[in-house]
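Q: What would this chain look like folded?
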Amino acid sequence: MSVENPGEMFCARCFPKVRWRSLHGTGSGGFEMADRRTPVEVGILGIGTALAPYACRQMDLLRSLAPALEPGSARERLARRIFRNACIDERRFCIPDFSGRDVFALYEGAPLGLERRMQVYQREAPALAASACERALKHARVSPDEITHLVVATCTGIFTPGPDVELVTRLRLRPAVERTLVAFMGCSGAFHALRVARRAAAEPGARVLLVCVELCSVHQRGEADAGALVAQSLFADGAGALVLAASDGGAGALAGLGPAQTWLAPGTRDALTWGMRDDGFAMRLSPELPSLVGRGVARFVAPLREGVEPGERIAWLVHPGGAAILRAVERGLGLARGELALSWSVLRRLGNTSSAAVIYVLEEALSELAPGSEALLLGFGPGLTFEAVRLRVGAGAG
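A: My prediction, written as C-alpha cells:
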C-alpha cells in the first residue's frame, strides 16, 4: 500500500487553492490522485443532528435479549461482558420497546417479518430526519425553498416513495428539488452522500441538503451468538444533516472541504455484512474487523497528511464504530487516547448510529475547533471500505 506520485499530494499550506482532488486505490494497493476538479470550492454552511426520543442505559438493554439469554448462563455472562466492554453508557431509539416500560411498538413477542419492521421505519425515520434537517437549515440560515438538491443516506429501511419524498413534503422543499437516495452503504454512508452532495453544490446557485438517518432498532433479532451480541451491543438510532454550497475560499462556511479519499480493501468483503433475511436484516461483524482497520489506516490516510508540519495538530474525527475500532485507529496512527476524544464521547453517549454517527462527531468538533484548524474526517463501511475527507475549519464555526 505504498503511496505513489508524492508530488501530486495535498499540501496544507495550499489549501485555499484546492478544488476537488480525490485519491483512489491502485491495483497494487497504493493510491493515486484522480483529477476530478470542480470550478469552485465547497463548504459546509450548516449542521444539525436529532436525538431519538427513548434513552436507554447500556446494561439495562440486556433485558431486550431475553428469552434468548438464560439468567446466569455462560451466554448471559458473555453478553454482559460484551455490553460492558462496548464503552457505551447510553443509546437512544425511536421506539419504546427497550425502555423497560412494557410499552411496545414492535417487539411484542410474536415473530417479526420485514413488513412490520419497515412499517415502523417508514413511520419514524422521516420525522427524525426532518428534525435534523430543520436544525441544519436554521444553522445555515438557509430557507427550505432555497434548497436545490436533497441527498438522503440510509441503510436500515426501504419504502417507495421513499424518505426523500417524505422530506420534500415535511420540509416544504420545492417540487423541483433534485433528489438522490444513497442506500445500503452502511456506516460509511455519510461519505458516499457527501461525495454526491459536494458535486451538486458546485453547480451555480446550488444549495444542497444532506441527511443521514438510521433506525437500527427495527432490526433486533433473537440470535445470541458472539457476533450477534457484539452487533446488539453497539447500534442505535439517529440522524444528522448538513447544508453545503459553493464558498469563496471557505469564507462564511463552518468548514471547507479539501481532498477526499476512498479505498475498497481487497479480500475483505466478509468483514462487515448486512443481509436481508425473512425475519429482518442480519448484521455480521468479523472478529478480524478491528485488526483490518488498524493495519490499513495509516497508509490509507498518509496522502491526506502530506504538508502537515511537525508539531502541527490535525483533529481526527473518526466514525465511532465501536471501542475496538477506535482503539485500532489509535494504534494504527500512533495516537494518544485524547486525540479521539470527540469520537469516544459520541460513542459513549449515543452508541453507533451507523451513517449518522460521524455527523454527531463533526458537529461537536465544529463547536470546539478554532477557525483555520485542520481536521480529517475518517470512516469505515462494508466492503471493507475506508473513507476520508480533509477539512479546514472556517470562520463560521465555533
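The longest strand covers residues 237-246.
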